[in-house]
User: Fold this.
Amino acid sequence: MSAFAGGTAVVTGAGSGLGAAMADAFAAQGMGIAALDINGDAAASIAQRLEAAGTAAIGLAVDVADRASLDAAADEVRGRFGSCNVVAANVGVMQFGPLERITAEDWQWLLSVNVVGTANTVNAFLPLLRVAEGPRHIVLTSSMAALVPSPRQGAYITTKFAITGYGDVLRQELADEGIGVTTVFPSGMMTTHLESSRAARPRALGESALRDEDLEVVVATAGTGDDVLTTPDDAIADLVTDMLAGEPYVVTHGSRAAEIRARHQAIEDAHDRMRAARDRRASAEGR
Assistant:
């Protein structure tokens, strides 16, 4: 029996794609599910499907950029389940294009949803995590693009860099409470992410521009191999196992190890050059 059995998982972005796959994965562990999505109908559909299969579930319309919306959802979860053992802050709207074309409205949208929305989600549900019995865990969705940056995704990548740093600090701050934090780095998946992302953009910020030339660059720099693109279910096949093992990071798929190592080696080299230069100056000064 899973250590999570009998607990509750809260998943944002649960109406489709990776979020829906997470809801299914946690339900398979014997957990109740709170499926949250800006598309309330999609969230309700996921909950209805899970309930039909025997899982206690609710589906709620939530805008993660609106803290009041999340607080109301937390009240609903508290009333239905009492607490929660897993909070999966899974959001990621996208805007392709070279950085010089990214508008202030684009930045406002991506930062408010991807970064502030993630922090809002954690803060709204952290009190319910703290009172839960059994294992307690936060899952944050970053992106492989934060580990291997590429052109025309700069604004999105910036937000996923922020989520990665946020997760590293959150893990340290919650360690003494026994609340784990795992950051997930997905690569490309067969989802409707682009369409749902554009549909979620507030009308007041104008339409999300999508140019063929930008998509071509993104596809061309996506890496190679037979696992560049996969299904959400396949991508998170090991998520629960890694969470229970206390793993800080989960790379879902893709073959980018060489690029990741090269980037970290460049950072180590920069550190070593700094130390060598400081040692040379100290030696010249007779220290």
